[in-house]
Amino acid sequence: MDGQRVTVDLERGLIDGAPSLRRSLALGAGPLPTEREYRSEGVTVQVLEAGAAPAVLVASESVFRSNFNQMFVLGRFDPSLFSLVFDAPPTARAFGLSQAGRTANQTPRLVDD
Known about the structure:
Order of helices and strands: EEEEEEHHEEH
Radius of gyration: 16 Å
Strand order of the largest sheet: 4-3-5-6
Largest sheet: 4 strands, mixed
Mean pLDDT: 85
Helix content: 10-25%
Distance between the termini: 32 Å
Structural class: alpha+beta
Number of domains: 2
Strand content: 25-35%
Number of strands: 8
Low-confidence stretches: none
Shape: globular
């Protein structure tokens, strides 16, 4: 991206007029993001409005589903396995393992498939 402008249409899920968005999320001051699904393939655009300067994250599906994105950026986690110890988005979040998380012999699921 050598300084070119990109047009993102969040109403129709388009990037520069092409159907490229799978979903979009707007994260503001509230606890839950506003999420919109467009199609089954494409990238995700996350608009992070909390904090001094808004930021935009364009993510592939693997990045969107990563633990870092789900837990730290979006604040989504399984409360039966983790506890939120410190919450100051967008700069800091800390999690602890719940007793069930320490004894569970399973991989935590952060996002419904």
